[in-house]
Amino acid sequence: MENFIVSARKYRPQEFDSVVGQAHVTDTLEHAISNNQLAQALLFCGPRGVGKTTCARILARKINERDGSTSEDGFSYNIYELDAASNNSVDDIRALIDQVRFAPQTGTYKVYIIDEVHMLSSSAFNAFLKTLEEPPAHAIFILATTEKHKIIPTILSRCQIYDFKRISIEDIQSHLRGIAKKEGITYEDDALYLIAQKADGALRDALSIFDRLSTFTQKNITLSKAAEVLNVLDYEYYLQIADQAKKGKMSEVLSGFNEIIKRGFDAHLFIAGLGNHFRDLMMAQSPSTLSLIEVGENTRGKFENQSTQWSPQQLIDAIEICNQADINYKNSKNPRLTVEIALMQLCSLGAAASLKKKSS
Ligand SMILES: Nc1ncnc2c1ncn2[C@@H]1O[C@H](COP(=O)(O)OP(=O)(O)O)[C@@H](O)[C@H]1O
Ligand SMILES: [Mg+2]
């Protein structure tokens, strides 16, 4: 069996060009390197899984390449990496500081990457501070953290700070498309969108969901499988319930809801999700709000279609009904009934609307 390498590792960018969604950082770094304006201490901040460690390594390698301390096969002699999440004692940092004093044997710079720097114990922090105050000319520190607020001001003020951003859904989706192609994985585009949405801005999370799904679906990632694995209710359910409610088909709607509960889906999430579905239909009614719907292309088309069956006032009423049930849910002695009442109200809203249509 071939060894499976997780995508997050296999596709760690080796160049700034291939880092997604952080151009404001990577451009500045490229620029600083080529103009020799790099600070001696840099701090990379931002949420997890957005490329901080990756960029620290690329930058370190580039610094080494420039001063000729990289071997022919690309190995850099002067990069030291300390993961403060697991090496956070004062001894760990002392060992590092001891090395810092010596100039490199080849090249000009030694680059120290201290990852998860907020995890250093306070005594380790203090020991480090002295070095950071007066670093030898050959030392460059790249610190990375997800918790900028935990970094004491004296350190912050000594570092050039780079803020990494969460990565947009579209950027993640398009990155996943590229990997799927390389890996020979077939996919529904909306499934990739859903993965990207669930990853909440972290590319690493997106990649690990992607791997999980690719294994689970034997390299054919569909929207419905993605929804299943991610435990989100497939949009098709909402589309169907809204459709039946519009026709006033109360028994179908109620048994549809029962089906959803039986599949282990949370009733509270369901009614909140249905409210959001009607909100999306409202947004689908105008081109200027269409972009406020967070779903893939194909699904958006279906929403647009369905939205034409409802008047704006009916949608407001429907949203209100779902929202009330959402609010009342936790305080209800019979929360399931709370949701069912809302569904019945939606059906009579739909039925009344179609009656009106017939008589006019
Ligand atoms: N901006 C990005 N562009 C491309 N890949 C990324 C990006 N951010 C994260 N990744 C992917 O996720 C993995 C982990 O990223 P990493 O740089 O360790 O994140 P962080 O240090 O911010 O938590 C990388 O190996 C890469 O596959
Ligand atoms: Mg990291």
UniProtKB/TrEMBL annotation:
One GO molecular-function entry: DNA-directed DNA polymerase activity
EC number(s) given by UniProt: 2.7.7.7
Tree of life domain: Bacteria
Catalytic activity: DNA(n) + a 2'-deoxyribonucleoside 5'-triphosphate = DNA(n+1) + diphosphate
Single biological process term from Gene Ontology: DNA-templated DNA replication
Domain AAA+ ATPase positions: 38-168
EC top class, as a word: transferase
Keywords assigned: ATP-binding, DNA replication, DNA-directed DNA polymerase, Metal-binding, Nucleotide-binding, Nucleotidyltransferase, Transferase, Zinc
GO cellular component assignments: DNA polymerase III complex
Protein's UniProt keywords contain ATP-binding: yes
Keyword Chloroplast: no
Family: Belongs to the DnaX/STICHEL family.
Assembly and oligomerization: DNA polymerase III contains a core (composed of alpha, epsilon and theta chains) that associates with a tau subunit. This core dimerizes to form the POLIII' complex. PolIII' associates with the gamma complex (composed of gamma, delta, delta', psi and chi chains) and with the beta chain to form the complete DNA polymerase III complex.
Described purpose of this protein according to its UniProt entry: DNA polymerase III is a complex, multichain enzyme responsible for most of the replicative synthesis in bacteria. This DNA polymerase also exhibits 3' to 5' exonuclease activity.
Protein name: DNA polymerase III subunit gamma/tau
Taxonomic lineage of the native organism: Bacteria, Pseudomonadati, Bacteroidota, Flavobacteriia, Flavobacteriales
Gene (UniProt): dnaX
